[in-house]
Amino acid sequence: MASSYTSRTGIEKPATGEQSGTWGDTTNTNFDIIDTALNGIVTLSLSGTSSTLTTSEGTVTDGMNRMILCGGSPSGTHTITISPNDAEKIYFITNNSGKSVIFSQGTGSNVTVSNGESRIIHCDGGGLAAAVTDYTATMAGNTTEATALAIALG
Description:
Strand 6 (101-104) and strand 7 (111-113) form a beta hairpin. The protein contains two helices and nine strands, in the order ββαβββββββα. The strands form two sheets. Strands 3, 4, 5, 6, 7, 8 and 9 form a seven-stranded mixed beta sheet that branches. The chain is elongated and about 50 Å long. It is α/β, with parallel strands linked by helices. The protein has helices at 23-39, 143-153, and strands at residues 4-5, 12-13, 41-54, 67-83, 89-95, 101-104, 111-113, 118-123, 132-134.
């Protein structure tokens, strides 16, 4: 039986007896993936009007980070497509790109984060019909306070 991968973060699960003598490399990569998924922060330098935030199996990628900081100089409203569309994700977003940023995962609902705003979003991983939900929109109290609390709790 070959290795398999976790559905949300792409952590490799070697099959019994597989990778004799190379478990160390796989384990080290898996720890890097876990570290990134728990507390990773990435700054995306946006340009143009679209990009993809990808999670790839068995390697550390930008889509694994918990905190996404949007910067750069997009030429207009920028759409970030979360890939793959069947991986459930929660992201803390801060947008300082100068333009609104739309987060999309499938044909379901999207979330727009205006310039200067922060949001907590949930990508439901529903495949082709995947949707993105703004959790901060339903949190009690001021969204600025809720976002600061969520970031502090990390």
